[in-house]
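Reminder to self: C-alpha cells first, then the designed residues, so the page reads top to bottom the way the pipeline ran.
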C-alpha cells in the first residue's frame, strides 16, 4: 500500500533511480529534455515588457518627448530663455539663460509649468522641477 501512495503523490515524476535505469536502457539521458517540457514559455507581451524595463526605454522616450511638449505647451517667452536639460528620479532639470528670467519663472510660473507637464506625462514621471542658471 505504501508503494501505491508514493505513486499517487508523484504520478509524472520518475524517481532518480528509475531515471538512471531508463537512461541506461535507452542509451541516452533525456532528463534535461523532460525538465524542459515542464518549462512554460513566455508570451511576447511578457518579453516586451521586461525588455522595455531592462533597456529603460520609458525614460528614454520621456527624454525625447519633453522638449517637444515643452515647446508646445509652455509660454514662448519662457521657452526662449529656459530649456529642459534632463530628467532624473522624477525631477525635471531646466536651465535658464539669465538670473532675471530664473527669478521670474521660479516666482510666478513654476506651478503652472509643473502642472502642464504633469498633465502631459503624469504625476509619477515628473514630480518636481529644478531650475538652474546656465
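Designed residues (134 positions):
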Amino acid at each position: 500500500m505504501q508503494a501505491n501512495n508514493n505513486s499517487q503523490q508523484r504520478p509524472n515524476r520518475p524517481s532518480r533511480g528509475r531515471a538512471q535505469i531508463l537512461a541506461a536502457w535507452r542509451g541516452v539521458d533525456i532528463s534535461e529534455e523532460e525538465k524542459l517540457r515542464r518549462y512554460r514559455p513566455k508570451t511576447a507581451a511578457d518579453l516586451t515588457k521586461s525588455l522595455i524595463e531592462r533597456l529603460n526605454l520609458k525614460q528614454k522616450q520621456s527624454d525625447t518627448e519633453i522638449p517637444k511638449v515643452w515647446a508646445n505647451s509652455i509660454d514662448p517667452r519662457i521657452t526662449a530663455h529656459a530649456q529642459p536639460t534632463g530628467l532624473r528620479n522624477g525631477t525635471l532639470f531646466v536651465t535658464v539663460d539669465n538670473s532675471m528670467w530664473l527669478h521670474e519663472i521660479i516666482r510666478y510660473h513654476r506651478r503652472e509649468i509643473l502642472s502642464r507637464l504633469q498633465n502631459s506625462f503624469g504625476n509619477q514621471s515628473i514630480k518636481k522641477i529644478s531650475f538652474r542658471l546656465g
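The first strand starts at residue 82 and ends at 88.
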